[in-house]
């Protein structure tokens, strides 16, 4: 059954893959991990044209690194606040902009860096059996917070809704432009989500985030990063996005406990314009 599905999917997709594949090829150029600034498994859909999504990502590392490593500040008891603003331009294209900040236990609130993230998706009119989109993210982070300061990420996104079940997979590829990670080449950082709708407004499940090292040869397991987040999603209104969870690190190189929350609000400028006419 899985092989038959894959053959049918490939046959249907082949004539329409040119644009998404172009973005994937671009991603093989020199490509940041989400780290603990924006902890999210992306769904395939994009923000509607003429609309803006404003999100606040709030993450607290309850149990992390306690010393400076390679000039990078410790994560233990640090609070990371990220402002994400995403504008929809067409029914298949959006661009997001991030402002990363960190509140250190003894160092106050500091600006960390900025990223920009254009994304395209396969339009619903193509009637693919799964949702597919591709985002690419470029940006800078201060050396105090990441040894790799300039980075590029390419993130294919596949998701599917099956009754009350929701599944998403983000097999991201990352590459550093400046820092020790340059020598590692392209690295693999998968993320995945599985959730179940308990009611019309509440879904619960698990999110997974990993970083395995270079695609040419993964790092030893102890040096890889793997986290599991039990999560809750609240669907209180089509205008709002609410997600929160607690992440458990499963290797020595992973922060052992992170509490995360996402609060998002959609604004439709098109509707406001029509209402004023």
What does this structure look like?
The chain contains 3 helices and 13 strands; from the N terminus they run ααβββββββββββββα. It is 10% helix and 52% strand. The chain has a single domain (2-276), classed as monomeric porin ompg (Porin, Beta Barrel), CATH 2.40.160.40. The longest helix is centred in the N-terminal third of the chain and has 12 residues, at 2-13. The protein has 277 residues and is mainly beta. A 12-stranded antiparallel β-barrel has the order 1-2-3-4-5-6-7-8-9-11-12-13. Mean pLDDT is 87; it is low at 1-34 and 273-277.
In a nutshell, what does this entry contain?
The protein has 277 residues and is mainly beta. It contains three helices and 13 strands.
Provide the fold topology:
Blueprint: H1 2-13, H2 18-26, E1 51-63, E2 79-90, E3 93-104, E4 108-121, E5 131-141, E6 150-162, E7 165-178, E8 187-197, E9 202-211, E10 213-214, E11 225-234, E12 240-249, E13 257-268, H3 269-276
Antiparallel strand pairs: 1-2, 1-13, 2-3, 3-4, 4-5, 5-6, 6-7, 7-8, 8-9, 8-10, 9-11, 11-12, 12-13
